[in-house]
Design a protein that fits this description.
single chain; about 35% helix; two-stranded antiparallel ribbon; about 15% strand; eight-stranded parallel beta sheet; alpha/beta; binds N-[3-({4-[(3-aminopropyl)amino]butyl}amino)propyl]acetamide; 10 helices; binds zinc ion
């Protein structure tokens, strides 16, 4: 499968995040993308350099003031104090209920809180560059599929940082720019009247859901750990079905933490039935691989062979498809698991 690889990904390399009150090494590492790249190369999949500037699509998916903040965030941070280039900023205050989010404070950490849903999305010097290059990779993968003439094309956006927790105006869950939303919007702009998004990451894709919640032209379907116990906790319940024009175009299939692969595939079947009924022109798959049994922060139990079964089922939908890499933190297994999906999709 043609893969658009974000060569700029390694510019985003924060050192640590917080876990149980302690600083721990980041789970979302540059090595993740390199493991996938190595496996793709070993299996003979063509790697392409992204060639599309996603700026105009980004402006349709994200709020202008958030994009401005993110692009300048590291510069603003290091300008604050000598030595900040050796420190990571984290938010410490958030505009929850009754606080104002219409005004952008001057204080940098306050602005970081305004534009964050958690303290789990560490920034580094190259975060904007890496995230923007990732959005370019998503737009490029979408353009490749949109340009298909006869036959069904598919492409893979192999990038990090991931994107599905990022909303129109906030970062979260290691995500800054919503690559799956960029791919879906790019497909729409290229002429697809209706696009389905299937999110199979362990965590609910709250950012993607919220971006398209009021729209009927983009269906969002997600299977994920039940938000009652699993991150992102505050979205992803079954009663979230869409609003306004988008009513009926959002389907969440939360699953209990620790559930079996059998149960997961039953939910996948429900998801596929909904996607088939939607009858869209293209599919975007938010391909999180943290449903893997060996994942260090998740509780599902898919084995490497199950990712082949996933790819096969998605291939049977017969839709032009853009795969977008999301989570998955058992880094050394990521290559085999990702390649199992895309090869089985193509019937290899
Ligand atoms: C894209 C993506 O997969 N983002 C996930 C963000 C999850 N951040 C919260 C991590 C909480 C880790 N809890 C670990 C429990 C281990 N026993
Ligand atoms: Zn995840």
């Amino acid at each position: 499968m043609i893969t658009f690889f974000n060569d700029g990904h390694s510019a985003h390399a924060p050192e640590f995040e917080f876990f149980r009150g302690e600083r721990v090494p980041c789970f979302e590492t540059p090595a993740r993308a390199e493991f996938v790249k190595d496996r793709l190369a070993a299996r003979g999949h063509g790697l392409r350099t992204p060639h599309i500037d996603s700026a105009s699509v980004l402006a349709r998916v994200h709020a202008p003031r958030y994009l401005r903040f993110l692009e300048n965030a590291w510069f603003d941070w290091i300008a604050l104090k000598a030595g900040n280039d050796q420190r990571q900023p984290f938010p410490s205050v958030w505009p929850v209920r009754s606080l104002r989010s219409d005004l952008e404070p001057v204080n940098f950490i306050a602005r970081l809180g305004l534009y964050s849903m958690d303290n789990g999305s560490p920034l580094s010097a190259g975060t904007w560059a890496a995230a923007k290059a990732g959005a370019d990779a998503a737009a490029s993968a979408a353009a490749w599929v949109a340009a298909a003439t006869g036959g069904t094309r598919a492409s893979f956006c192999c990038s990090r940082p991931p994107g599905h927790h990022a909303g129109a105006d906030f970062m979260g869950g290691y995500c800054f720019l919503n690559n799956a939303a960029v791919a879906a919007q790019a497909l729409r702009d290229a002429g697809a009247a209706r696009v389905a998004i299937l999110d199979v990451d362990y965590h609910h894709g709250n950012g993607t859901q919220s971006i398209f919640y009021q729209r009927a032209d983009v269906l969002f379907v997600s299977l994920h750990g039940d938000p009652q116990t699993e991150y992102p906790f505050f979205l992803g319940h079954a009663d979230e079905t869409g609003a306004d024009d988008g009513e009926g175009f959002n389907l969440n299939l939360p699953l209990p933490a620790g559930c079996t692969a059998l149960r997961w595939f039953e939910a996948l079947e429900q998801a596929c039935l909904r996607i088939r009924r939607f009858d869209g022109d293209a599919l975007v798959v938010s391909l999180g691989l943290d449903t893997f049994a060996g994942d260090p922060i998740s509780t599902f139990s898919l084995q490497s062979g199950d990712f082949s079964r996933l790819g096969e089922r998605l291939g049977a939908l017969g839709l032009p498809t853009v795969f977008v890499l999301e989570g998955g933190y058992a880094a050394a297994a990521l290559g085999a698991n990702a390649v199992n999906v895309i090869e089985s999709f193509e019937g290899v």
